[in-house]
Amino acid sequence: MAEIRRKIGSQAGPSLAPEYNFVIVEGSDDILGECSLHAVDYRNRVGQIGICIWKEQDRRHGHASDAVGQLLAWARGCLGLQRIEAWVNDGNQASAALFVRLGFVHEGTLSRRYFALGRWHAVRVYGYLTTSPSGFAAVSE
């Protein structure tokens, strides 16, 4: 409950927030997971996206694809973001495949970036440019 209050507090007020958290629902009250936009940098028009479908039986039904697609459109249209990053724990093949399917490109791997379960893990960074119809523009800027 404290984490939910922190998330709500970070979004309070009429000004732009550094993070946005949305629940993924099916029907009127079946909460399936959450999709977030965090580490929003308005000066550089960049944010990081996160997705989690909580129960195994709710995965692989298109809920994550729909949520990420809607969040990308909202981040571009309402917030004016130009770049979205997805940081995926190395070994999370399902999330990596989801982001690649949606037009994200693997840009690199950060070694020993995340500590969990008593050991260090690498994080794979995927990038998406909202200015390109396919997600990532294959040009050098």
Q: State the secondary-structure class.
A: alpha+beta
CATH topology: the name is: Aminopeptidase
**What form results from the Cα inertia axes?**
globular
Note the total helix count.
3
**Residue share in β-strands:** 35-45%
Class, according to the CATH hierarchy? Alpha Beta
CATH H level, superfamily name: Gcn5-related N-acetyltransferase (GNAT)
Mean pLDDT: 87
**Could you give a short account of the major beta sheet?**
6 strands, mixed
Percent helix, as a range, is 10-25%
Separation of the first and last Cα atoms: 44 Å
CATH architecture: 3-Layer(aba) Sandwich
Strand order of the largest sheet: 1-2-3-4-6-5
Model regions low in confidence, pLDDT < 50 over at least 5 residues: 137-141
The count of domains is 1
According to DSSP, the number of beta strands is 6
Order of helices and strands: HEEEHEHEE
Q: For the CA atoms, what is the radius of gyration?
A: 15 Å
